[in-house]
Each structure stands twice: as C-alpha cells, then as structure tokens.
Specification:
By secondary structure, this protein is mainly alpha-helical. The protein is built from six helices and no strands. The radius of gyration is 19 Å and the shape is elongated. This is ATP-binding protein.
C-alpha cells in the first residue's frame, strides 16, 4: 500500500508526541509524590501551586494515554502488507484505543457534571469539547480498522489520514479545555480561544 509522504510524517510526529506526553505523567508524579527524607524531623511544605500543576500534568498524561494506542494502531497498519492487519492484532489495537477513549470521555463527563447547572456548563465547554473529539476519533478509528480488515489500500490510506487528524483534534481539545498554560514559544501560531476558558493561563507564581 502506498501512503502519502504527508501521512507518514504525521504518523511519525504523532508518535513522537505520544512518547513525550506519555512520559510526562510518571516523571512528574515521581517528583510530587516523593516521600519526605527519612530521619527528617521537620515537615516538608508542599510546592507552591502544586495542586494546579498536578491538574495540568494530569491533562497532559491523559493526552499521552489516548495518543499512544492510536499511534500504535497507525504504525501497525503502515507496516502491514497492503495495510491489512491480522485479525487478532487489529482486535487488540481496537480494544486498546476504545479503552483509552472511553476513559477520556468518562473523565470529560465527570468534569462536565461538576460544572453544575446547564448555564454554568455553557460557559465552560472544555470538557464537552474533549468528549466530542473523543467520540469523533473513535468513529475514525473504527473506519480505519474496517478498511484495513477489508484490504482496501485506498480506503485505508484515507482512514489513516482521518485518524491522525482526529488524534490531533483530541490533543488540541485537551490543550484548549484542560486548564493548561498557554504555549509561549516564539513563532507558534496562536490557538483559538474558547468561551469560559482563560487563554492566558500560566504556571502559578513561585
């Protein structure tokens, strides 16, 4: 199966992003969850802004947990002859992706429920956007698995591109609606803003 150079580059980029995001959670938690040094008689004060930082880190870890199984699926399809995955391998990938997306959707629903009345939810659509992106990605992954199983190279290539786009949608939805700090690297395009979401979120002052 011939895959466009663009699709290949997107797959590589998404995989690199998954590895970076997935590593964020364990690395950060190992620091914030570290116990006080043994033998110390003094209580250790919590890091300033630790709670807010933990929430931001959880959002990043959630992105990694979703991206990794999707990019594993994409990589498997790209490596398979004519893009046709063996049935058992396709079933495993599909189950892993569904588990990750179900978890993301459940977390988004819980966050939405905490918002309170419908009027309050309307002012904070971040979690609803994440849930919508998760559902959209699930649909695209299902289409990819179906096209791969059928051995339709053209349909599989199109489904790969759609799946990668859907994955980016999920990551962006998490960034926009997950209380993360705004990116500040010079040269990056500005992300759109959402009603009820502060676009100028920064790390807590130390």
């Amino acid at each position: 199966m011939r895959i466009s150079r663009k699709a290949g580059l997107l797959a590589s980029s998404a995989l690199c992003g998954a590895l970076a995001l997935g590593a964020a959670g364990p690395a950060f938690s190992s620091v914030t969850d570290a116990p006080a040094r043994s033998g110390s008689s003094e209580s250790v004060a919590p890091l300033p802004g630790a709670e807010a930082l933990a929430k931001q880190n959880t959002a990043l870890a959630g992105a990694g947990a979703v991206v990794q199984p999707v990019t594993d699926l994409v990589a498997g399809v790209l490596k398979a002859p004519d893009g046709k995955l063996p049935k058992d391998e396709a079933t495993k990938h599909a189950a892993d992706v569904k588990k990750a997306l179900d978890g993301l959707a459940a977390g988004a629903k819980a966050a939405t429920d905490k918002a309170g009345a419908p009027g309050a939810r309307a002012q904070a659509p971040g979690p609803e956007l994440v849930a919508k992106a998760a559902a959209d990605l699930q649909t695209k992954v299902d289409a990819l698995v179906k096209a791969s199983a059928a051995g339709d190279a053209k349909a599989t290539a199109a489904a790969l591109q759609a799946t990668l786009t859907g994955t980016v949608n999920v990551v962006v939805a998490i960034v926009l609606g997950g209380d993360l700090p705004a990116p500040d690297l010079k040269g990056l395009p500005k992300l759109p803003t959402l009603p009820g979401v502060d676009p100028a979120q920064t790390l807590p002052s130390l």
